């Protein structure tokens, strides 16, 4: 998965910064997503919905807290430092 595979035109600007800037809160997740062929993502309602093998695992928003839908190793990365 890469930036070209996601339509970011409807993504919240805060979320873009958190994902794509090196010091962003979710940048580490974004980098891990690049190397994981089981993950897909789509922008809905200005948020990033992340799926593993077709099942939603996480929703990332710009200002709101992330929503963990199902336990996944990607979600565990949010609490690790």
Give your account of this protein's structure:
There is one protein chain. With 81 residues, the chain is of the alpha+beta class. 28% of the residues lie in helices and 25% in strands. It has three helices and four strands; from the N terminus they run H-H-E-E-E-E-H. It has helices spanning 13-20, 27-34, 73-79; strands spanning 39-44, 47-52, 55-60, 67-68. The protein is globular, with a radius of gyration of 11 Å. The protein starts with 12 loop residues before the first helix and ends with a helix. The mean pLDDT is 90.
How are the elements arranged and paired?
Blueprint: H1 13-20, H2 27-34, E1 39-44, E2 47-52, E3 55-60, E4 67-68, H3 73-79
Antiparallel strand pairs: 1-2, 2-3, 3-4
Helix pairs in contact: 2-3
């Amino acid at each position: 998965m890469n930036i070209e595979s996601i339509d970011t035109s409807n993504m919240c600007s805060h979320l873009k910064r958190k994902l794509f800037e090196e010091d962003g809160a979710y940048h580490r997740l974004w980098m891990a997503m690049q190397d994981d062929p089981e993950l897909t993502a789509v922008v809905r309602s200005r948020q990033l919905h992340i799926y593993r093998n077709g099942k939603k695992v996480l929703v990332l928003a710009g200002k709101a807290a992330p929503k963990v839908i199902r336990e996944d190793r990607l979600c565990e990365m949010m609490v690790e430092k």
